[in-house]
Please model this.
Amino acid sequence: MADRRVDPCTLSTPVDQIVTTKLNLDWDVDFEKKTLSGNVKLDVKILKDGVGKLVLDTRDLSISGVWNDATNEKLTFALQDPNQAVGSALEIQLPSSAQQKESSCCIRIEYQTSPSASALQWLNPAQTVGKKQPYLFSQCQAIHARSLIPCQDTPSVKAPYDAKVTVPRDLVALMSAVRSGEEACSDSAKKTYCFEQKVPIPSYLVAIVVGALESRDIGPRSRVWSEAEYVEKGKEEFSETETMLQTAEALLGPYVWGQYDLLILPPSFPYGGMENPCLTFVTPTLLAGDKSLASVVAHEISHSWTGNLVTNCSWEHMWLNEGFTVFVERKILGRMKGSEKERHFQCIGGQKDLRQAVETFGESHPYTHLLPLLEKVDPDDAFSSIPYEKGSTFLFYLETLVGNTDDFEAFLRAYIEKFKYQSISTQDWKDFLFSYFQDKASVFNEVEWDKWFHSPGMCPVLPKFDTTLSDACTKLCDRWCAADFMELEEFGASDLKGMSTGQVIEFLSQLLLKPALSELHIHSMGSCYKFDDTGNSEIKFRWLRLCIKAGYAKIIPKAIEYACKTGRLKFARPLFKDLYKWQKSRQKAVEAFLENRENMHPITATMVAKDLEVDTQQ
Ligand code: BES
Ligand code: ZN
Model:
């Protein structure tokens, strides 16, 4: 395998020359100007003679000065012209005391973020549920940290951090760290919050939120945070958190991060969940009322090991984060429901997501590789279910070859123990796999490694999954597809009786991969199953897509409304794309997007603008 350790998505000094060993942040949050201003102190260690300068990633930052923090000596710096995909390099002349191998220094950078920082969304009070206070949150993965902090913005560098955040007195600030105190401020209208993240983390895991936040305890080491209106609902929905944490610990070893809190964000949050250490961020679309979407929490909890302890060294190796995490997430859910069948059912669902992703890109597209090349590529453009589902299926397949789930779980534990606190490549993982299972060399020789890593499209081998739980979904799906108009009256609400929410979702996913249904079929399905009224976002999303696919024009306003309201990329992008493909809704979709763009999350706005072929600079 041509193993690439260089990260093509950073402009910063490579890790074999200089590494950041600690970050210290001091920010003032200004809702009027929509800026964070203050400084970052970076402790850096020089690993080679004659490096001379430190290069950091930035995007849209205004830098007012750079100092050697120990001596207060001003340092010469230059900000290079921006590159669309990766931002602008900030070059800093290192002090004379930090020229040699093994030397170190602390660089202080005074700066301010831009109101259009890609990592941040600034919401005015009208955009919140409470309507009274403004709100700010960050999303740094994959390469948005550079719009927040000048740093080595690559997952190959890990450092602990401290932070002080000053905000309007009535608001609460939280970070991806342990809360270490509050201080009064010389300006009595403001308040300062202190944070400490002692575990070394990559830059993409730095996170901040500021808003009118409240919390409820949901376990011995967990609280749920949100605006007052969501907090009780969240407490119910995520009541299984501690059980999930304990199940994950039984699988992978101790949870090292202290606190595990959840934050429910406004609907514009672009992801289902984000594994910010100590404080997972989740979309409010998980609040289904029946815990049926809590698998996202199991996923983010799993990242506390796969991703946050053992980290991919670049986004080309993202499957080491996401594929492993999906694999572990399904182990947790399987154990909690006491059934391997449940785990297999989840895997079957994942295959549908993989097929959708392959169809969206096209089956020979390079982004469908497990290890894509990301030279001069914005990783947000390459993002899809591929590393999740191809990656976890690969692990499932290897588990089958090993022949025993206990042995494979022991391997996973050993893998975490071996690589925790490090950033690794696919080759590192593969070498360890071979050294761990020395007696399995002949079995592993069967594996078409190159095909798995570097061929496009679906998986080279599909493991056999137990279909017990999906059979009912397949049966109902086939019945709908085969039904002629006369037979439509034979369907009724009772068809879904005895099906879990997950099975209803699987039924709809299967239908979406079939040829379009007729408008009459859709009409009947809507009146039997009442999908228009569902409070479950996964059902609603698939139902809207199914209606659009069938050319059911009545759905257009609802689909547009939902696409605009939810910032969650997984829902908004396919809906906007479907609406754009369809002549009848195309113009309305573009108009609705342009009207809403100002209120959208910057990441969602950028991605949807690309999908709708609207000028991204506008
Ligand atoms: N780390 C990801 C979210 C992410 C990926 C943010 C890439 C930015 C770039 C998170 O753990 C995740 O995978 N979320 C999924 C949840 C799921 C697979 C259960 C999501 O957002 O849907
Ligand atoms: Zn994930």
